[in-house]
Amino acid sequence: MKKSIALILTVLMVLVASQVTAKDDPLAAWKPKFDPSGAEYTYILSNVSHPVIEGVAVGYKIRDAVWEKTNGRIYVDFRPLAQLGGEKDVISKLKLGAVQGMLSSSVAAANVSDRLGIVNLPYVIDTFDKLDTFRNTPELWEPFANGAQKQGLLVADITGYGMYGWATTTPVKTLADAQNVNFRIAEAPVNTDSYKAWGLKFTVMPWPDVPQALQTGVITGLDHTAIVCNITKKFTIAKNFTELNYAQGLFVHLVNKRWLNKLPKDLQETFLNVIKEESAKTRVLTRKQHEAQVAKAKEAGVQFYQLSDADIAQLKKEAEPVLAKWGKKIGSDYLAKVQAALGK
Questions:
Q1: Quick one: pLDDT at residue 198?
Q2: Per residue in 223-259, pLDDT tens?
Q3: Could you tell me whether strands 74-79 and 41-46 are parallel, antiparallel, or unpaired per DSSP bridges?
């Protein structure tokens, strides 16, 4: 009887411990279903966001597919939720090789290479369809994919987190309304130039500081996507969203070339093919997630607005000096080619 009671107590303790672990560990549901200890090669992949976002969850899908297709020779050790630090810190580690891969936000990618800033320029790659055309057209994609070669990095592919707009504490239905908002923008040079050109008040702020800043009124608006704002509960305070749709929020998959080149040729090919396949699937899922999160936000009472055609035209006109400035950095011929292919 004592042995039976002891056994029951042990089982109960294990169950309780597992429940506590699952509750305390936000990534418990994404643990690998295999033992990675026997891998010949380890690829540490960083990201600052949560894998409930499809563009982030791709890291785990890549992990599992690479493991299967290389017969356990490569383990993709995916570290989301800024486990390895903020994006600027991780970019430095990536160049050094301390981290081998990074799903960098598109706003931060311009800090790696000016050419990567093209995806965040206002009204250039501003729809899901344009993004697909950009990715699937070699003469547009390859200069971008090779844009960080001087930094020892390769752009393996891209996933996304939706279309940028304004989440605000008061409704923004016109550009005149926007003049009364203090927008939080990312620590990114393209964004800074755009908001200066638009003549809007803004504060450059790290993402972890946003919740308190919103609650205290230090900022009254966010430059971000509906997917992220709804999933991260920013709509509980900023209950309005203006669908500006001036750029796609992307995760740019950067790979350290020194690490990649040390792999046998067959593993290199398999590794890059898996990233390509899973990223393409994820871009389809991101479209669906955008629609789903907008619908959920509307059901919860978030009000959505669109600027008039005249206001959008004004934003585009005011952004022309930004495109001219970044065209010189990116390559004027390349920017013109992208604009011509996608439609201005």
A1: 98
A2: 999 999 999 999 999 999 999 999 999 999 999 999 9
A3: parallel
| CA-closest candidate to residue 254, choices 163, 344, 154, 106 | 154
pTM: 0.90
Please name the amino acid found at residue 84. Answer: L
User: Per the domain annotation, does 1 fall within a domain?
Assistant: no
Q: The tokens of 256 are what?
A: 């350290």
d(CA 256, CA 100): 5
Q: Which two tokens stand for residue 234?
A: 């920013």
Number of domains in the chain: 1
261 exposure class (CB count in 10 Å sphere: 0-12, 13-18, 19+)? exposed
pLDDT of amino acid 104: 97
Is residue 216 exposed (0-12), middle (13-18) or buried (19+ Cβ within 10 Å)? exposed
Range of the domain at 38: 32-342
Q: What is the dihedral of CA 134, 128, 289, 90, to 10 degrees?
A: 40
In-domain check, residue 8:
no
The CATH number for 126's domain is 3.40.190.170
Asked whether residue 256 is domain-assigned, the answer is: yes
In a domain, 2, yes or no: no
Record the tokens describing residue 186, joined without a space.
């990312």
